[in-house]
Specification:
Two copies of one chain form a homodimer. Chain A is mainly α and about 220 residues long. In chain A, about 70% of the residues lie in helices and about 5% in strands. The structure holds a DNA duplex (30 and 30 nucleotides).
DNA sequence: CGTGGATAGATTGTTCAACAATCATCCAAC
DNA sequence: GTTGGATGATTGTTGAACAATCTATCCACG
């Protein structure tokens, strides 16, 4: 599934590691990553670490300020609106023009299944991940490698925002059933209805996230 | 229009410089860029140059092979197909859901105008650039910063492919009028027709590019 | 003559140390 | 309280060095 070789550079391995630590919340949004401190703690040189910083900055997970180093990106209200705008455009179109027997349907089913299990288990972290996988699978319907990687970066950035918000049950709870519903519409071939439902879903999701942001201290007065 | 400051790092300035040189054809697709040679010719250190390589690799302009360094990316047939798939999805949807008085309309007009002038002057290089600007303006209709940067990378990668192909008049000649036609449909508010015309345009453009590739020696036997 | 492998050369991967440039802090002077 | 400059810390950039890997050459062997 990945690009050929698993034999990667040290720099690429570290990039993946830091990426995961950011998404897992080990590094909080806004936290500055010191080159000296992090390179020592990871047992790598500053130069190698700087290479990874450039990559993660391009992915939108880090923010680089000249002569001030990098910090974990803080998703702004504007960023969230922007991301949902892209999601509506891409996801709805991807599902509208797909054929229902597309192999990515397996991924959609799998994600819905996992989401149900996680919800029943009370694992909202897992439910959130499953939700991301479901929408990633929707984009796979468009059969474009470039769209896939671009969209995965988009979802990663959004996950950063989710990580900042409390009340995960409220955030991810309703979506498992909505995903199930969308999958049903898709498999029954009602693509137009499906795209409409997905659009409504995204509008509602955006609204919930934004209202959660409005209650969050970090967004007050920005 | 750019992100705040014009005061940039050496690394970022060099990144921009190399990017331009690649797109301008100073570095041919497939050409390997030696760290030692290029860093010396640019009067910068290898470490700084490597940072720029990582960025340009993520943008798709360079290809990185472990222990073999980087080379200017060679657009494959598959890549071109992939790119046009994304273009159809994004551009058509962007124009379909836009409102005709959007400020980006100015950019569309400007690009069409420039395209006409370049064509009459026989400047097919400029006509190609104007064409890219026109389609960039279409994406701007969607009002998403992220979509804009993602799409600009896509077009840059495509420009790499155009650069490899000869016969620029044949490639870029018909498009100035087609763009004009699309702009007219858009300004008259016939968005559905406009999206359809744009889709046809992209299908035809893809076909022409692919057939040009088929005649190109580098693609024979791949 | 062709094949295979050893060897040497070149390039990338990674680290380290140093210095310049810039930013943040703090304290004194007004 | 504000301005101003000295001070310390961090990033920006460089050069050199060595390890790891790939490429090319050449020679021995069948």
């Amino acid at each position: 599934m990945t690009t050929s070789s698993d034999v990667k550079n040290l720099a690429e391995r570290v990039t993946e590691q830091i990426r995961q630590r950011i998404l897992h919340g080990d590094f909080a949004p806004g936290q500055r990553l010191s080159e000296a401190a992090l390179s020592e703690s990871l047992q790598i040189s500053r130069n190698t670490l700087r290479e990874t910083f450039r990559v993660l900055t391009k992915e939108g997970l880090l923010k680089h300020e000249p002569n001030r180093g990098v910090a974990v990106a803080i998703p702004s209200i504007a960023a969230i609106i922007d991301i949902y705008r892209v999601r509506r455009l891409i996801e709805c179109q991807a599902i509208a023009q797909a054929y229902p027997s597309h192999p990515a349907r397996k991924h959609m089913r799998q994600a819905v299944e996992t989401g149900l299990q996680c919800r029943d288990r009370g694992d909202w972290q897992g439910a959130g991940t499953a939700n991301m996988e479901f929408h990633m699978a929707i984009v796979e319907l468009a059969d474009s490698e470039r769209l896939n990687v671009m969209f995965s970066h988009l979802l990663a950035e959004l996950r950063l925002a989710f990580g900042m918000l409390q009340d995960p049950e409220f955030l991810h709870g309703p979506y498992v059933e909505m995903n199930q519903q969308i999958l049903q519409l898709f498999e029954s071939g009602k693509l137009a209805e499906c795209a409409t439902a997905l659009n409504d879903y995204l509008v509602q999701s955006e609204r919930i996230v934004l209202s959660a942001c409005a209650r969050h201290p970090i967004f007050k007065g920005r």
